[in-house]
Design a protein that fits this description.
Blueprint lengths: L2 H24 L10 H23 L5 H9 L5 H25 L1 H6 L3 H8 L8 H22 L16 H16 L9 H13 L15 H20 L3
Helix pairs in contact: 1-2, 1-4, 1-6, 2-8, 3-4, 3-10, 4-9, 7-8, 7-10, 9-10
Length: 243
């Protein structure tokens, strides 16, 4: 498997399980309906861990353009490969959203609320004020990229001074779980441009009965803000951890 294929499949796994838990909680007549925010954040954290375990040894499991760009900015990933990774991540996110749509096919008809249908695919603000919506996405992605780099730093991956190498993806999943619990309330914590844009495109294209608009007026926020946060997180790590 090539690294680009791995990024695509890994992101597909991430979105299938991540958007899948949202569908389980939000859509009518699902057995997980109304299970709440704890279930959603736990599902997303586990989705990240499983996706990273699946393809990390092949591509590094960025699964997120903000991670790819952040690593490139500090010289830990070649810029020449960045565009291919980002395209693969977007494609994987789009495919994952289609799988969720198929898995919950009977439930779209049973769910009248258009906003809930959209929320399965992509994020939206609790209070719609774009300047204030940008900030939590920047902060969340700053913590994400900083945390990933710190957790997976060479000293941590040394069993003699840190933890077993195989524990890294699980800890990254815990990081995403923590971000969701602590910082996810204002915007739903996209913290990943591909995670939001790929499924949003799927929502726009798929024949979902009774769906509303795909909220393109907001769509730029979970794309631009995580990229800014990812760059800042990577630069902060580079400045203070001195790897």
């Amino acid at each position: 498997m090539s690294p680009l294929t791995a990024e695509c499949i890994g992101t597909m796994i991430l979105i299938t399980l991540g958007d899948g838990v949202v569908a389980n909680v939000l859509l009518n007549k699902s057995k997980g309906q109304n299970a709440g925010w704890m279930v959603i954040t736990t599902g997303w954290g586990l989705a990240v861990a499983i996706a990273v375990y699946s393809v990390g040894w092949i591509s590094g499991a960025h699964l997120n353009p903000a991670v790819t760009i952040g690593l490139a900015v500090i010289g830990q990933f070649p810029w020449s490969n960045a565009a291919g990774y980002i395209v693969a991540q977007l494609a994987g996110a789009f495919l994952g959203a289609i799988l969720v749509w198929l898995a919950y096919l009977p439930h779209w008809d049973e769910t009248e609320n258009k906003d809930l249908k959209l929320a399965v695919f992509c994020t939206g603000p609790a209070i719609r004020k774009h300047p204030m919506n940008i900030l939590p996405e920047i902060i969340g992605t700053f913590i994400l990229v900083l945390g990933v780099l710190a957790i997976l730093s060479p000293k941590n991956l040394n069993p003699e001074t840190g933890f077993p190498t195989g524990l890294g993806p699980f800890l990254v999943g815990l990081l995403v779980w923590s971000i969701g619990l602590s910082l996810g309330g204002p915007t739903g914590y996209a913290i990943n441009p591909a995670r939001d844009l790929g499924p949003r495109i799927a929502h726009f294209l798929l024949p979902i009965s009774g769906k509303g608009p795909s909220d393109w007026n907001y769509a730029w926020v979970p794309v631009i803000s995580p990229i800014i946060g990812g760059i800042l997180g990577a630069l902060f790590y580079k400045s203070f951890w001195n790897p």
